[in-house]
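#struct-queue
[09:14] JT: dropping the first one here, sequence first, then the structure tokens:
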Amino acid sequence: MAKKKRSEITNIFLNGRQVGSHPDGRSLAKRLRERRRMNELSSQVNIYYNLRLNELHILTDKGRVRRPYVVVEDGKSRLAPGVLARIKNNELSWHHLVKMGIIEYLDAQEEENALIALDEESLTSEHTHLEVDPANIFGVVAGVLPYPEHNSSPRITMACAMAKQSLGIYSTNFGQRYDTRGYVMYYPQEPMVQTRLYKALNLKEKSAGQNCIVALTSYHGYNMADAIVVNRSAIDRGLHRIAMFKTYETEERMYPGGQKDIIELPTPEVVGYRGEESYKNLAEDGIIMPESDVYGKEVLVGKTSPPRFLEEISVFGTVEEKKRESSLSLKTGEKGKVDSVLITEGPSGNRLVKVRVRSIKVPEIGDKLASRHGQKGVIGLKVSQEDMPFTSKGITPDLVVNPHAIPSRMTAGHLLETLGGKAGAIGGMLMDATAFSGNTEEQFKAILKKNGFNEFGEEVLYDGITGRMIKSKIFIGNVYYQRLHHLVSNKMHVRSRGPVQLLTHQPTEGRAREGGLRFGEMERDCLIGYGASMLIRERLLEESDKTTLHVCIDSGCVATPDFTQNKNYCKLGQSDDSEPVEMSYAFKLLLDEIQSLCIFPRIILKDKS
């Protein structure tokens, strides 16, 4: 027998490390897989033969993503009818199927050597494996979405991201929990159109949305560009209404020297006393009573702390210890009712108080809604039921969505769900929207036709304001809509005046710090383009960090104020002549920083005339 060339010998790798060679790698891979199916090799082992490089990789390391498949031999599935009957009789479990070599797990590399069929009908002699269920191609979140195979992939990604932001019942014991923030929907519903995975995960126990009647049409321009028109009467009846729970906590901290905080009702002698009005809801122990109404900056738990320095000298020269006010209060701009109070011990053994505040969030203009197809939008208008369009049977839509949202996004699944939801509501059944194997459009059409409806889901609607028939038919049906936690009431922010930064004297940034709205470079460029110079002056100087400094006429440097003699003097100038100059405080800061680099900037003053 002729000796094989070096290039014909297969190199064998175990977890990426070469361990030997073999004259025929392909047959070795086949034999190893047979051994694995006979349970002589661990089911955790994966074998991958790279024909191009003539390498055999045996993989046993951790962290490989593996998926189960049904083994196919000679174009026939090993999961025969007899085996299925034994599974139904509970004679065989999943573990048995893996041991018997009927099911095997492949990782990403061994999948390269496999040809996998979606269903038994499409099996050929070339196929090596069969999907257990085609819907397994999707993960847990995408598997819950209806008809994902009818949508474009970016929309599926968006729908997955938004399903995580949807508000429903996040936990069935929310009443006993003190989460930092939690949202609970008043009337959550399970979707009319759902997948088998939705049922398997028992998600109806923790639903996060409601079935809405949705009409696809424009409404006087109020649902342009992804805005949604909502039936105000439906909101009044509880559509997408949620309760927000927010927990505030404070602890009696220990300090070096044996001092500690005390939770109590602060007295007027305490340094930083906020006035009687701020403590009006507190009980005698300094803790707020449940079901009290609270508004921004009102105290929830009264607390006093020892002074920052161990002892302070009073006006009369005696040494005394003064308490500091360090109460827990509600954040600015928030309001609600105290839901419950928990008094317990912290990890360090000190007294810990948690106050849970409840506020009802009714859908308002600007709140975000989304279907399970990545079709997100904000409420653009709330319309009373009598002004909404209605069908001949008196059905009024809860939402009016713009039809322009559908063609460019290619979310045919949204339309299919609308049709399926309508058929399910009329037929009194839940519809199956599992990927690749759910109910079909033909089935929905048959139900609608049988019940006297247009098979395409279109109906004649009448204008609620004029009462006239709308000329074109409008597509209307049931869609499961989720309310997302981007709420206007949690984001709305405005200020006229407020805190400024110590360094630049410019307004602080962010809603939490009562900050201003940033007027950036691009906004400034727009005003320059318009020639609105006085508006630029107002935004960037008057409303920001305007300051008046005295500048020495002789030397051109900033004069130093002398408060005892009530005049300004210059260290370098020959005279005390100085003039007040209006400037941005940031410019004054720049001059100071330039001076710190041993450069002497001067401001040369000239007469205005």
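[09:21] JT: and here's the second one, same format:
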Amino acid sequence: MTDKKLSKKNTQAAYDAESITVLEGLEPVRLRPGMYIGSTSSSGLHHLIWEVVDNGIDEAMAGHATEITVTLLPDGLVEVADNGRGIPVGIHKTTKVSALETVLTKLHAGGKFGGGGYKVSGGLHGVGVSVVNALSEYLKAEVRREGKIWLQEYKRGAPLKKVKPIGNVKTTGTTITFKPDAQIFETLEFNWGLILDRLRQQTYLTKGVTIKVADRREKHRAKNYKFYFEGGIKAYVKSLNRSNQVKNETIFYVDKEINDSRVEVALQYNDGFNETALAFANNIINPEGGTHVAGFRAALTRTLNTYARSQNLIKEKDENLTGEDVREGLTAIISVKLANPQFEGQTKGKLGNAEIKTYVEQIFGDSLAAFLQENPRQAEAIVAKCFLSAKARIAARTARASILRKGALEGMTLPGKLADCSSRQPEESELYIVEGDSAGGSAKQGRDRKFQAILPLRGKILNVERARLDKMLANNEIKNLVIALGANIDDQFDLGKLRYHRIVIMTDADVDGAHIRTLLLTLFYRHFNALVTNGNLYIAQPPIYQIKKGVSIKYAYSDEEKDKIIKDFGGSKEEMIETEANEEETTETGAPAKAKTSTRLSIQRYKGLGEMNPEQLWETTMNPASRVMKQVNVDDAALANETFEMLMGADVAPRKHFIQTHAKRVENLDI
């Protein structure tokens, strides 16, 4: 195999009407949109933008575009423009209509399927702009090509007129303007922050491309961002590590092409305990990894061991560093581009191409070996970090062996504080993690003993962002939780042995409760990650207020909901202000709480779960028929990792900046 330098302009067949391959029409899309964009929720709504942007990214990866612009417009419109070659407009020999109309009205029609248009391409679901057209109330396509501007408009996927030229132009490119269909989507509100994060990531992954983002939804509050990263994924690693103390100041980076595939890897070590390795294939994130990650890990472990032995850092009688040792504190981006990616699952979570493992292992392994030889001081810092990790692993193994005995994990020695459920069917069982004995007492009395288990925690658990496994397992609260779950921890965690399929965090609606919730989320994200990605983790939503009028009782989960209930009950804001001075202490059975009373309404503010009696806790927070729960998931692993590092890491400066930036947005802060 020989490495070939990647050219900006790829040698390939002409991109014209003959490059467009047609597989099927659009009829199924409006009937079952979830099959094509994942869901009709906010996630599916944003996928419309991703699909159109991916066309521009494909042009950039092929060396034909340098700029993409995304603009949010009034009335729910989105405009995505690129300066690529422009979608072909000639008559397609199979469909007998313009290639532009074919691309926009036929599912799986495009230059990505026949081999003539693109060498590599992305697109989350591979369905492209045709699905955007089908799920849009209105879509306008403007193509700058062959010296003219070509126009076609559509209504819910159907063309209103034929493609026609509307003017002359010297530039090339495509502009798609669309309005998502209210008949399809549950929400039409675009998330500005989510769009910025996604497009920033795509800019990192496409070296040399500029992506501009503008928000024009409100005339007087326009926002503009421009992303350009000359260093590509090398700059991405630097950004991910900006809150960390790094070990090798020089970031390792390699970018090579081999047998029509391209391998790009960047890595840097920090003094933390967690691994952040993000994998991409054709700019699509692969949260479950795949063959490119397998090749990367194999080469990383082998190369570092080979170097350490060649420098006599590992004696002949000593054991090699393990994969776990060399990945602690690692921040890495693995990005591959290939002609025919084979993914597992509709969302392309895992890459399956066998040859890519060999390519990554060879290119990355050889380049890392050269980097270590050429940068001895950097290499020494990396190896020293790995040896420290190895010592911690041995200590953690000892701790794990002494605490997590086989019998304990099979339920023979469950924690004494755990009030277990009678069911032994994990799929119907749920574990409530509550703060304090008071809330635990109410929860134990109010629960359904058949399927609900309660585990009270004493105080705040250890911040695991700053602790290794041996220190974690010395913490009684964490140890009890691990044993209660029954599925071990970290790399030995086994979802198949999980004793409860719903793990529910239930804390008070105050500052301490929020802190405990954040500590628990950090623990689950870092050491029980499969729980999060598999959808087993939930956050209970206890009410903030109980509002009474005579025998009628309603619960409010926010101030807005409280105001609405007061209005529905016939109360008024003025009346509540007048009765504020008459605040008095009232006592209900098992539930002391402050109440604002009037002749018409009684409003009780719950500051803790322990203030609710068991019946109230069951009805509002634990009864499957009436409770409100939030399922925890991670849409963006890099953003989640950065957030946990910022909130819970050792570096104070980023956390201080976050607090100063967002302090004014906090309402009803209880201290």
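[09:30] RK: nice, looked through the second one.
[09:31] RK: Residues 3-227 form a domain with the Heat Shock Protein 90 fold (CATH 3.30.565.10).
[09:31] JT: good to know. The two ends are 65 Å apart (CA to CA).
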